[in-house]
Design a protein that fits this description.
By secondary structure, the chain is mainly β. 2% of the residues lie in helices and 42% in strands. The protein is built from 1 helix and 10 strands, in the order βββββββαβββ. The strands form 3 sheets. Strands 7-4-3-10 form a 4-stranded antiparallel sheet, with no helix packed on it. Strands 6-5-8-9 form a 4-stranded antiparallel sheet, with no helix packed on it. A two-stranded antiparallel ribbon has the order 1-2. It starts with 7 loop residues before the first strand and ends in an 8-residue tail after the last strand.
């Protein structure tokens, strides 16, 4: 679950050393709306789909102030309350850590027919009415190894793009 620090030293032609600042980026990070780290697995004994939202990195700022991000999870195609989960909001950060676990009661067969929608949103400011979507992700669970349960980094899509 740990990310590489990316710090170190670099020598210039004159023999001077420059200290490189750590880059708090996820492996393979690319420019875009950021990245989301998730663990997904199916708990056969409990007949539950389990998701752990670990962290986000390199979220885009939405204004002058850093966002108050949280992650909203929705198990599609349902859109009711039983399919929705969300993390607590982290205050003023582009690199939030959540480490929150969520469960859905369903069979493995049913889980493999679902898509997990993850949206990283920012809590509205006092003046704003709507939550701003910072990035989103769609995971077809039939394409995810639900026996593994290891954390993976996923690139977020622009909020305006579809599944």
């Amino acid at each position: 679950m740990e990310e590489p620090a990316g710090g170190g030293e670099q020598s210039s032609p004159g023999g001077l050393r420059h200290r490189l600042l750590p880059t708090d980026s996820a492996p393979g990070a690319e420019p875009g709306p950021g990245r989301l780290q998730l663990s997904l697995w199916y708990h056969g004994d409990g007949h539950k789909l389990v998701a752990i939202v670990h962290a986000c990195r390199r979220l885009r700022p939405v204004g002058k102030e850093p966002p108050d991000p949280f992650v909203s999870l929705l198990l599609l195609p349902e859109r009711g309350r039983g399919a929705k989960r969300k993390t607590s909001a982290q205050r003023r950060t582009l690199d939030p850590d959540f480490n929150e676990r969520f469960e859905w009661d369903l069979s493995l067969e049913d889980a493999s027919r679902r898509t997990l929608e993850a949206q990283v949103k920012s809590c509205p400011s006092f003046m704003a009415r709507d939550k701003e979507v910072l990035g989103k992700l769609y995971l077809d669970l039939s394409q995810v190894d639900l026996s593994e349960g290891r954390p993976h980094w996923y690139n977020l899509q622009d909020a305006r793009s579809g599944p």
